[in-house]
Structure formats: structure tokens, C-alpha cells
């Protein structure tokens, strides 16, 4: 009796765990927030929706104002929501707020010059800092949604034709 090499056993396990052609590679659950692209169903841009229910191989999604039935086989791209990041929102808000404050200080400086009053050179930095602080505060309240891309395999929908895998083990 010959014992298989440990690498061959690991490789065989990995190949057997790979998605088969007849499996549904997209696992959607009710109340899950998703962002999908399904050109055959008329969804050509990434669109956010919430899974209402699964009806066989079709997902019923709640889009902005209506419910849409999307065959899972038509989905070419899918991302799952990972929730909201307060830190990401704060960073984006700080950058936008700082930029708005800097531009506002420039406009304020021009008004002061036309009125023949001189403002200090630190005015732009003061306005930018105040704008950044306000942006960080508001951005942390609003947050930024994070997404996780889920692989979609061609031909992975039920009824699809998938490849075959032959594996021979000798003991």
C-alpha cells in the first residue's frame, strides 16, 4: 500500500471544495443589503437593494421604490454590505470640510480686500481647520457604507453547465 503525499491530499481537498457548476454560488439571505449588477435583468450599474426573499433561483429585491425579481443566473457582480464605518465617514467629512473652509476663507479674504480691510494670513488655515472639524463631526455621524465583493462564477446558477473534475487516488 502506498501513502499519498500530504500535498496531494491538500490539493484534492481544495479541488473538491471548489464550487461545482451545478451549485448556486451566490448565497443570498432575507434582509441582507446587497449591491448588484445584472445586465440581463436591466440593472447595468451597481444598484443597492435589500433581499426580501428567495424564490427558487430568483431573488426578490427591495430597490428604492419598488421590488424587483432578479434571476440569480443574471447577476454578474454582487457585493454584501459590511455595515457603516464611522472612521471612513469622519475622514471623508474632514477632507471635504477642510476644502470648503479653505475656499470660503479665500472668498472672505477677497471681500475684505475690496473693503480695504486686511485679514491675517492665517485666516485660510483657521477657516480650513474649522471646516475640517465640522466635517469630521458630521462625517462620523453619517458614516460610510463598506462593501465586500462576493465572487460570482460563470455558469454557477442552477441548471448551468459546469465543468467536471476527475480525481484518481491510489493507495
Portion of residues in beta strands equals: 25-35%
Biggest sheet, spatial arrangement of strands? 4-3-2-1-5-6
Unreliable stretches (pLDDT < 50, length at least 5) are 18-24, 155-171
Structural class: alpha+beta
Question: How do the helices and strands line up, and which of them pair or pack?
Answer:
Elements: H1 6-17, E1 33-38, E2 43-55, E3 58-62, E4 67-71, E5 77-85, H2 86-114, H3 123-142, E6 144-150
Antiparallel strand pairs: 1-2, 1-5, 2-3, 3-4, 5-6
Helix pairs in contact: 2-3
Kindly describe this structure:
This protein has 3 helices and 6 strands. With 171 residues, it is of the alpha+beta class. Strands 4-3-2-1-5-6 form a 6-stranded antiparallel β-sheet. A hairpin with a 2-residue loop joins strand 2 and strand 3. Helix 2 (86-114) packs antiparallel against helix 3. The model is unreliable at 18-24 and 155-171 (pLDDT under 50).
Amino acid at each position: 500500500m502506498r501513502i499519498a503525499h500530504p500535498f496531494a491530499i491538500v490539493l484534492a481537498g481544495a479541488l473538491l471544495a471548489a464550487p461545482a457548476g451545478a451549485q448556486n454560488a451566490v448565497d443570498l439571505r432575507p434582509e441582507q443589503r446587497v449591491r448588484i449588477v445584472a445586465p440581463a435583468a436591466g440593472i447595468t450599474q451597481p444598484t443597492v437593494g435589500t433581499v426580501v426573499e428567495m424564490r427558487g433561483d430568483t431573488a426578490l429585491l427591495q430597490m428604492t421604490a419598488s421590488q424587483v425579481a432578479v434571476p440569480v443566473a443574471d447577476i454578474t457582480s454582487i457585493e454584501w454590505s459590511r455595515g457603516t464605518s464611522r472612521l471612513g465617514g469622519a475622514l471623508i467629512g474632514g477632507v471635504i470640510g477642510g476644502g470648503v473652509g479653505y475656499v470660503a476663507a479665500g472668498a472672505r479674504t477677497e471681500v475684505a480686500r475690496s473693503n480695504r480691510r486686511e485679514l491675517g494670513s492665517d485666516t485660510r488655515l483657521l477657516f480650513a481647520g474649522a471646516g475640517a472639524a465640522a466635517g469630521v463631526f458630521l462625517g462620523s455621524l453619517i458614516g460610510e457604507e463598506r462593501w465586500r465583493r462576493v465572487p460570482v462564477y460563470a455558469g454557477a446558477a442552477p441548471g448551468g453547465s459546469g465543468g467536471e473534475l476527475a480525481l484518481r487516488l491510489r493507495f
